[in-house]
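One-letter codes give the sequence; the fold follows as tokens. An example follows:
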Amino acid sequence: LPEFYKVAFQRHPTARFVLLTREPSAWFASMLAQADGYASGDSRVHAKAFRRELEFLRGLHAGELDDRLDARGRQLSLHGRAAHYSEVYRLHNSEVMDFFGRHAPDALHWGELEDPSLWRRLGRFLGLEVPFGYRCHVNATGAAVALTGT
């Protein structure tokens, strides 16, 4: 959820936080691919997280949407909404960086997924030794590399 990091920070003020970003168009393309162009999971929660509440409620009251969790997650279409989602994505990332910049600058590590030094920089932030050239990606194949605390 969009502001959960604030709750987590209040409950765990000494915790460290990680924000990994990517180009908004690449992020949105990934969202489209994830659920064939539809909101995944509970549409009410999705609408809240991505600031589509009015559209969701209009569709719900018009009988066009179902309030139950749709296991297929196909209640809200993402098609034709790249600009909206990209703007919400940029706003969220900016809000996170602003919040930590004001409250705990050393508690947030921000990195870009395309940065070749991302994992080594993240490792330093977390106190882990990351081998040179280490890459991590959900769809990547190959042997896992063990990371050790320093």
